[in-house]
Each structure stands twice: as C-alpha cells, then as structure tokens.
Amino acid sequence: MNTGNMSNDEAKSIGDFIEQLNNIEQRLKKIQYNNDVFLDNQEFLQVMNISKRTAQSWRDEGIISFSQVGSKIYYRFSDIEELLNKNYKKSKR
C-alpha cells in the first residue's frame, strides 16, 4: 500500500478497515450459495450500512425478522434478501 503522507497509525487503520471489508466480502460470497446463513447484528449493520437505532426500529416495526439468543441478535440472510426484494423499485425505462 502506498502510504504517501499518511502516518503509520493512519495506514494501519486503513489496512485494518480493508481487511474487515475483505472478510465481509468473503462471508457474502459464501452466503450467495447458502441463504440459511445467519449474520449477527454487527454484520447486518455493516451490510445494510445502517445504525443500531435503525436496526432496532426495523425489528420493533416488524420490517426485518430476527432471532435473539440471550443478548445477541441474528438475521437470516434470506430475510435480508427478502426485505431488499420487497422494497425493490424497478426503473421506468
């Protein structure tokens, strides 16, 4: 990675972030072949790019199905896909 004018801490932070994105990408590739995979709340927040509060609202309003084991929240990938498909807006062209 070309760090240019970045400090070592900034370069490490960016490297860590890229590693996290690569991990998510690998997980999503596996999910494409198996919709019965569950994502934990943090993964759901990252995939959907939403806040914890939005996720809580969606659960409260019944927008997204979820499982809860103790204090951990899990979402079935097929339910996430269904949510996106239900709200899909086809272009008018």
What is the gist of this entry?
This protein has 93 residues and is mainly α. The protein has four helices and three strands. The protein has helices spanning 8-32, 41-48, 52-60, 77-86, and strands spanning 38-40, 67-69, 72-76.
What's the helical proportion of residues?
Answer: 55-70%
Number of domains: 1
Please outline the major beta sheet: 3 strands, antiparallel
Biggest β-sheet: strands ordered side by side in the sheet: 1-3-2
How many helix segments? Answer: 4
Overall pLDDT metric: 87
Low-confidence stretches: none
Could you say which overall geometry the principal axes of the C-alpha atoms support?
A: globular
Radius of gyration: 17 Å
Please provide the ordered H/E string of secondary-structure elements: HEHHEEH
Find the count of extended strands (DSSP E, 2+ residues).
3
| Structural class based on helices, strands and sheet pairing | mainly alpha
The share of residues in extended strands comes to 5-15%
